């Protein structure tokens, strides 16, 4: 058990491979597992209480870490000392900072190797305690499973099925070892021979080892191995087919609805952003050529329009076939009606090494996209995506409209439409008061939305005291954003973009967070290269007449995001009385926080709306997800179809049973055993309906009557003869003369077909009518519930299904047994 516990821990640790660039972490984990096993074994040899088992394992792990990482500071090279403990703590701190600074796979720095060894060792301590000392092997699978949660949490592609299968086999081996030791504790196993001993032929050399039959234990062990293999296969394959565990399930079955639409799901875009920014190789993502006379615009992937108080995400995309790219013009960009725009053509080539890029990086706003595959567009945001294809290794052409608004146009933008206000200024009411006050203080004295946006941008990248730092952890909850704005003021583009978009919503400017890539670097005239370090997030603010406009709060250059740049319209001087903001009304105050936590547009946004507060509220209510009957109708239809399956199988079985009587019989069938051929001599048999065999008709009628009796809940005794069955059913049902006659004819026909070579006197059509008569008698003799069950959920169909599954299982087990016996047969030959 000690050996198997260590092997199971090592097998489970294989799932950590996506986290590291090198393989040295496994050697460090192996040493930790061996040390823990030795400590636990010593505690059991000394017969100490269970608590000492974990204590000895931890002490052995600590001694191993001292020997491996700080041997020069430990006593005798492995005994912990105060200095060695402090150095281990410092090394662990450095490893934690490196893990936050780099994206997986991380370099195997000493601190990261220490963390890996300590983590695997702690899992080994728990497994050794539960499985070996406490004999609770099943709960020992929980710490093993915890190791898989780490790569699943930090990498969107998770762990491969092969690594999971190795870990599962290790756990099954631990269970098998535990079961064997528990059975062995009762003493020697008592078994019986599987078959009689074989008697060798005369003159043959007796070989007792081959003549002796194998014991039943061998068959049981083979069955156990087969069950274990099937369990692992099911654990690996079923999650791939379940839409709830995979975005779309196997064969793209998941995520659909009754009206033919599918919900588009992707990993968290902001998690992918941090991974791209911290890649050590800074690999090339794509190259592109553009006819833009000026510096190219950003390449956008996502438009995140929902803020839940913790993170920015995009609203669920309901995709249908109508959204497919067909080479025609895409929907017009929202709000772009006044500002001038120019056409830009961009030819993009994505590197084949890029994986799982299901959203296309395109300049905003795309008007036409030419690409092979099933790609679609989301009209409100103009995101281009695919449900099954990836952009890796593809080339495509994008024609886009690049807006060129002037400062005057942005400053004089009209009121916002009500639907824009309702959706893009909604913030949770539990936003802290100090954040709301901060938004008002930063933008104080600005009379237009443009002036407010420019002040926010300048506060983030100039006057606010913020610094660009890729080592800052990604925000996971609202308090992280508060800490960034009010205290630490350290972060990268995600924090800057998310914070400016939130503050803009608070003061009433519709906003969202965009994510994609900056223009990259120009390698030759008109040709640009985009690398992983060019991944970026930025806020987009809405101005009526221009639509969505990009701003850049993230510091640029050597002290920030290297290839980011602020657009020209976001750089006007907002001090003095001659700015465009002086031509507009003063900015209204922000609304005070309410008591509940629901999200609603801010007061400033409602005042800017041309429909007034009432229209904005109504638009907000219309924007919220309302009741949709389509999913309920689809679910009800699915339930009805599933309920109709047994009934349909019963009807199909009945029809096939009677249709088989007139099916053509080929010449190879020949006459039935013991019966003359029913076909006249010289008659052709190819394709023509044959004359029904009376015996087959009698058997079909008897089977139908038996199925009807079972369906209506009547007792059917297989040991009774046809005559006894008919007599018992007649007494039970109190049939009228017509029903009794029909029952008697069916029983007599079956009796003659079973026990006599003479032909049944009843024609098939008569027997079929008699079966119908008896069925009606059965239905009349039972209650309504039994009649409904006979029609909707016939038990005969369930029994037939069980028999079919049992037969298939028997065949599979027989085949597996033969395969298992093949090596021994080959050895005997």
Description of the structure:
The chain is an alpha+beta fold. The chain folds into 4 domains: about 1-185, no CATH class; about 260-405, no CATH class; about 410-510 and about 545-625, no CATH class; about 690-815, no CATH class. Helix content is about 50%, strand content about 10%. It has a 6-stranded antiparallel beta sheet with strand order 9-12-7-2-18-17, with no helix packed on it. Strands 8-3-16-19-20 form a 5-stranded antiparallel beta sheet. Strands 1-6 form a two-stranded antiparallel sheet. Strand 14 (about 465-470), helix 15 and strand 15 (about 490) form a beta-alpha-beta unit. Helix 14 (about 450-465) packs antiparallel against helix 16. This is DUF3488 and transglutaminase-like domain-containing protein. Keywords: Membrane, Transmembrane, Transmembrane helix.
Could you give a quick summary of the protein structure above?
With 829 residues, the protein is α+β, with helices and mostly antiparallel strands.
What class would the helix/strand composition place it in?
alpha+beta
Helical residues, percent = 40-55%
Estimate what percentage of residues fall within beta strands.
5-15%
Radius of gyration: 38 Å
User: How many strands in all?
Assistant: 21
Sheet of most strands: 6 strands, antiparallel
Question: Strand order within the widest sheet?
Answer: 9-12-7-2-18-17
Number of domains: 4
- In DSSP terms (H or I, runs of 4 or more residues), the helix count works out at 25
């Amino acid at each position: 058990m000690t050996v198997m516990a260590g092997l199971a821990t090592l097998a489970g640790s294989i799932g950590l491979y996506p986290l590291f660039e090198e393989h040295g972490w496994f050697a460090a984990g192996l040493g930790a597992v061996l040390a823990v096993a030795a400590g636990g074994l010593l505690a059991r040899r000394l017969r100490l209480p269970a608590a000492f088992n974990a204590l000895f394992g931890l002490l052995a792990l600590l001694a191993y870490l001292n020997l491996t990482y700080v041997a020069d500071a430990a006593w005798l090279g492995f005994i912990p000392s105060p200095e060695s403990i402090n150095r281990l703590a410092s090394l662990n701190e450095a490893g934690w900072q490196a893990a936050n600074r780099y994206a997986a796979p991380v370099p195997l720095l000493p601190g990261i190797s220490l963390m890996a060894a300590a983590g695997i060792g702690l899992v080994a301590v728990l497994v050794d305690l539960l499985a070996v000392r406490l004999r609770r092997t099943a709960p020992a699978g929980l710490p093993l499973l915890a190791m898989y949660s780490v790569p699943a949490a930090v990498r969107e592609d998770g762990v491969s099925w092969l690594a999971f299968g190795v870990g599962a086999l290790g756990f099954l081996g631990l269970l098998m070892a535990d079961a064997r030791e528990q059975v062995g504790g009762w003493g020697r196993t008592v078994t019986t021979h599987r078959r009689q001993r074989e008697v060798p032929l005369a003159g043959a050399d007796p070989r007792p080892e081959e003549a002796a039959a194998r014991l039943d234990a061998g068959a049981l062990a083979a069955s156990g191995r087969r069950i274990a293999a099937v369990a692992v296969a099911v654990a690996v394959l079923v999650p791939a087919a379940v839409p709830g565990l995979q975005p779309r399930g196997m064969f793209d079955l998941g995520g659909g609805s009754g009206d033919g639409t599918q919900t588009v799901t992707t990993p968290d875009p902001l998690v992918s952003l941090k991974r791209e920014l911290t890649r050590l190789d800074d690999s090339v993502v794509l190259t592109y050529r553009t006819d833009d006379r000026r510096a190219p615009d950003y390449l956008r992937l996502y438009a995140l329009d929902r803020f839940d108080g913790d993170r920015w995400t995009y609203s669920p995309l309901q995709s249908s076939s109508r959204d497919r790219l067909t080479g025609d013009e895409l929907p017009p960009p929202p709000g772009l009606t006044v500002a001038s725009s120019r056409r830009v053509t961009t030819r993009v080539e994505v590197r084949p090494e890029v994986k799982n890029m299901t959203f296309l990086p395109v300049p905003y706003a795309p008007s036409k996209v030419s690409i092979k595959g099933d790609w679609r567009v989301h009209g409100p945001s103009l995101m281009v995506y695919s449900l099954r294809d990836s952009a890796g290794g593809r080339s495509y052409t994008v024609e886009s409209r690049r807006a060129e608004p002037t400062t005057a146009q942005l400053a004089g933008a009209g009121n916002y439409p009500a639907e824009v206000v309702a959706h893009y200024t909604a913030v949770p009411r539990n936003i802290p008061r100090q954040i709301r006050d901060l938004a008002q203080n930063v933008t104080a004295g600005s009379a237009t939305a443009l002036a407010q946006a420019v002040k926010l941008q300048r506060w983030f990248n100039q006057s606010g005291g913020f610094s660009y730092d890729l080592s800052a952890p990604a925000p996971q909850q609202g308090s992280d954003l508060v800490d960034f704005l009010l205290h630490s003021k350290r972060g990268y583009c995600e924090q800057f973009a998310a914070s400016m978009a939130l503050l803009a919503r608070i003061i009433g400017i519709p906003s969202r967070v965009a994510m994609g890539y900056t223009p990259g670097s120009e390698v030759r005239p008109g040709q640009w290269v985009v690398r992983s370090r060019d991944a970026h997030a930025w806020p987009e603010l809405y101005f009526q007449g221009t639509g969505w406009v990009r701003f850049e709060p993230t510091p640029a250059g050597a002290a920030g995001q290297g290839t980011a740049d602020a657009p020209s319209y976001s750089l006007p001087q907002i001090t003095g009385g001659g700015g465009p903001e002086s031509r507009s009304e003063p900015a209204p105050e922000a609304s005070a926080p309410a008591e509940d936590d629901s999200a609603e547009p801010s007061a400033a946004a409602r005042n800017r709306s041309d429909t007034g507060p009432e229209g904005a509220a109504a638009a907000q209510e219309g924007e919220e997800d309302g009741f949709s009957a389509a999913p309920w109708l689809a679910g009800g239809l699915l339930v009805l179809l599933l309920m109709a399956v047994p009934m349909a199988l019963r009807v199909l079985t009945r029809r096939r049973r009677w249709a088989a009587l007139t099916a053509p019989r080929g010449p190879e069938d020949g006459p039935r055993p013991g019966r003359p051929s029913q076909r006249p001599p010289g008659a052709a048999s190819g394709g023509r309906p044959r004359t029904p065999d009376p015996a087959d008709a009698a058997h079909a009628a008897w089977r139908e009557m038996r199925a009807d009796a079972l369906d209506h809940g009547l007792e059917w005794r297989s040991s009774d003869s046809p005559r006894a069955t008919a007599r018992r059913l007649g007494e039970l049902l109190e049939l009228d003369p017509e029903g009794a006659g029909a029952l008697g004819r069916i029983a007599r026909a079956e009796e003659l077909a079973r026990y006599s070579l003479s032909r049944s006197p009843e024609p098939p059509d008569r027997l079929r009518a008699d079966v119908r008569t008896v069925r009606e008698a059965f239905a009349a003799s039972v209650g309504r519930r039994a009649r409904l069950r006979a029609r909707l959920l016939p038990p005969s169909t369930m029994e037939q299904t069980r028999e079919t599954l049992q037969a298939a299982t028997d065949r599979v087990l027989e085949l597996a047994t033969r395969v298992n016996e093949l090596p021994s047969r080959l050895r005997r030959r």
